[in-house]
Amino acid sequence: MPDLFSLGRRGLFLFDAETAHGLSIAALKTGLVPTCKAEADPRLAQTVAGIRFPNPLGMAAGYDKNAEVPDALLSLGFGFAEVGTLTPKAQAGNPKPRIFRLERDHAVINRLGFNNEGHAAALSRLSARRNRSGIVGVNIGANKDAADRIADYVAGIRRFYPVATYFTANISSPNTPGLRDLQAKESLDALLSAVLAARSEEGLKAGKRLPVFLKIAPDLTEEGMDDIAEVVAAHDLDGLIVSNTTLSREGLTDATLAREAGGLSGAPLFDKSTAVLARMRKRVGPDLPIIGVGGVSSAETAMEKIRAGADLVQLYSCMVYEGPALPGRIVRGLSRLLDRETVANIRELRDSRLDHWLSVKV
Question: Which residues are catalytic?
Answer without folding.
Answer: 173
